[in-house]
Amino acid sequence: MAGAGGDLGGRVALVTGGGSGIGAAVARRLAAEGCRVVVADIAGDSAAKVAEEVGGRALTLDVGDAGAWEPAVAGIVEDEGGLDIAHLNAGVATGEGDITALTDEQYQRVLGANLNGVVYGTRAAARAMAAAGTGGSIVATASLAGIIAFGPDPIYTLTKHAVVGFVRASAGPLGAYGITLNCLCPGVVDTPLLGDAGPMLSQSGYELIPPSDIADTLVRVVRGGRTGDAWVCLPWLEPAPFEFATPDLMPPA
Predict the structure, then answer these.
(1) How far, in Å, are 95, 116, 142, 253 from residue 154 at the CA level?
(2) How many C-beta atoms lie closer than 10 Å to residue 170's C-beta?
(3) Which of 107, 120, 156, 206 is catalytic?
(4) For 75-97, how does the pLDDT look when each residue is reduced to its tens digit (9 = 90+)?
(5) 120 catalytic residue (yes or no)
(6) Diameter of the chain by CA atoms?
(7) CB atoms < 10 A from the CB of 133, how many?
(8) pLDDT: is 200 or 208 the higher one?
(9) Chain segment 127-138, per-residue pLDDT in tens
(10) SS3 of 165, please?
């Protein structure tokens, strides 16, 4: 069966950015589904707390470090017996809407976490899944900013558009190995990434999405077996794959 699919009991799952927010909610939900969860985060202490809570294992991981991924996944396969689900969730924002004020450090940090982490993570997870021959499911956290123009943080928006494009383009080739690849495109989720904006948005009446709702959608995506989709998650809509418009690519006769 392509992807993880069906009953998730006994599956081995890796969740990056698992020390807080969406990642922590996903780790809890997958553990409740019977998965053996490896909680990865650049903040090792945060990963350890969530891992202890869900009865999983903690891993300190900088997702933007290309050299860290292969040994990390190899260790998971050796210790847990395989890798069935990878949720590539780690991400950061610049908080800078003015491109003239953007620093090199801000730019490289966001590229490392949001984009490189997804590419390196997909490569390492897919290699392990392909070698095992049993397929698997990879889900990246993109954002609604991956399908709309989000002016308050253009660089964050750039990376999330790139994740959506990468997922859509890579899903077909990975299908040959029985691997599904999808991404989640949530609106504003109530996580530490919001910083001081979170309370302000709540007080103004804006409906924030609980991280547990995103975790529910992830399980639905993993079980569903579809691939190459960007799932839009908004408080007032049922989660669903975004329908991209495709231009007529054939020249007129």
Answers:
(1) 9, 17, 14, 40
(2) 20
(3) 156
(4) 999 999 999 999 999 999 999 99
(5) no
(6) 64
(7) 8
(8) 208
(9) 999 999 999 999
(10) helix
